[in-house]
Amino acid sequence: xxxxxxxxxxxxxxxxxxxxxxxxxxxxxxxxxxxxxxxxxxxxxxxxxxxxxxxxxxxxxxxxxxxxxxxxxxxxxxxxxxxxxxxxxxxxxxxxxxxxxxxxxxxxxxxx
Length: 112
Description:
- With about 110 residues, this protein is α+β, with helices and mostly antiparallel strands.
- It has helices at about 5-20, 95-105, and strands at about 25-35, 35-45, 55-65, 70-75, 85, 90.
- The chain contains 2 helices and 6 strands; from the N terminus they run H-E-E-E-E-E-E-H.
- Strands 1, 2, 3, 4, 5 and 6 form a 6-stranded antiparallel β-sheet that branches.
- The longest helix has 14 residues, at about 5-20.
- It starts with a helix and ends in an 8-residue tail after the last helix.
């Protein structure tokens, strides 16, 4: 399943707005896309760059396109890396309302 270009652009812009430019040398919000799934992650600079470690990546949320419904659903990762539906069974025709939920994080699931 292919993610529509306008939805991909929406997620890309949301990620870019999440971290002020002067802090992007330490933290970035990025996304990957695969088979109708968009995984949003926090990327952090190495604590000890002199040790040669790279940036760490921690998944924050996932948006999945449900093809037979043409709707998006929101998921959150547990500590084992398994994905779970967001508690209120929210579905949306575009990623925007779901990204608003991730931003607000009323349950503390996404940002802690």
